Amino acid sequence: MTPAFVTTSDSVPALGKDGAGLAGVFATSGVLHLVRPQVFEWIIPSALPAHRTLVYASGVAELACAAGLLYPRTRTVAGLASAGLLVAIFPANIQMSADIGKRAARTGTAGWRAAFVGTVARLPLQWPMIRTALRLGGR
Q1: Any idea where the domains of the chain sit in the sequence?
Q2: Measured in Å, how far apart are the chain's first and last C-alpha atoms?
């Protein structure tokens, strides 16, 4: 028997390995946002209010997207919501990279320089995730 995430009806995109991976990333990150919100508070741009609340809201949104992607009847809506969420959190990823870059320049330590390189390298990886989400959203 073929697993449900491999094939679906013609009107609903198959989840595929990339979609399953995206759901896994959202589920893992969503749980982490709820269990350890302080890990994410500092990357929220300072212009935005209520950092803890925003971290919790993004964690709940990630969990909802993960669950929605797994269920064929909600996959299309969840795919579009996932793409929107990934676009919405992109400024926080840029903020994280900028903040770590400043710290790397200030301290000059190899650890902070490596962290900065990692955060910059991570930024373009968001685009394939958005593309996968849009595919699952039928776009």
Answers
A1: 16-133
A2: 29
Cα 139 from Cα 126, distance rounded (Å): 17
Which tokens belong to 86? 């990934």
What is the pTM for the complete model shown?
A: 0.82
* Greatest alpha-carbon span in the chain: 57
Judged on CB neighbours under 10 Å (0-12, 13-18, 19+), 100 is buried
Q: What is the DSSP annotation of 40-99?
A: HHTTS-TTSS-HHHHHHHHHHHHHHHHHHHHSHHHHHHHHHHHHHHHHHHHHHHHHHHHH
* pLDDT digits 0-9 by tens, 24-74: 999 999 999 999 999 889 888 788 899 999 999 999 999 999 999 999 999
